[in-house]
Design brief:
globular; 8 strands; about 160 residues; 5-stranded mixed beta barrel; single chain; about 40% strand; OB fold (Dihydrolipoamide Acetyltransferase, E2P)
Amino acid sequence: MMSSVLKVWLLLLVAPTVHACSCRFPTVADALRNSPLVFAGQLTSLTYLDPLRYVEGRGKIGMRPRRVAATFRVSTVFKGPGDRTVVVHGINAAGGCASFSGKIGSKWIIFAARQTVGAASEWEGVLREGDTLTTIVPCSLSAQGERAAKIIEDLRALSK
């Protein structure tokens, strides 16, 4: 009879690799319903809030900062307040559920949420406790380029 330690060791050897972020992407209607803030806009600046470090996840490998602040000029608001400029904070981590990268000038659709920074949060040293930040909703349909254009088209069809 195998010992429990040996059984666990064998299980670890044959178990498939699991990534921190496994998304089942929602329909456009569900993404709209589940995101407090949805807007289309153009990326106007991307600020690195930490030094660059090696990050691997979601098929993307390279040097990235841990935390970023992306500023968007909003062209269309589908849900939420009508701000003309929105700063979206993101965390680049292995798994990449809420990571962010993009080229200045690229067009995006963003599904986001606003939250209050708590004590000992991931934003310590960048934001103060009690500050409000906007983050991409993990496993949402936030996208850029052609994919964003298709989602925007679908959102417009939903609003008719």
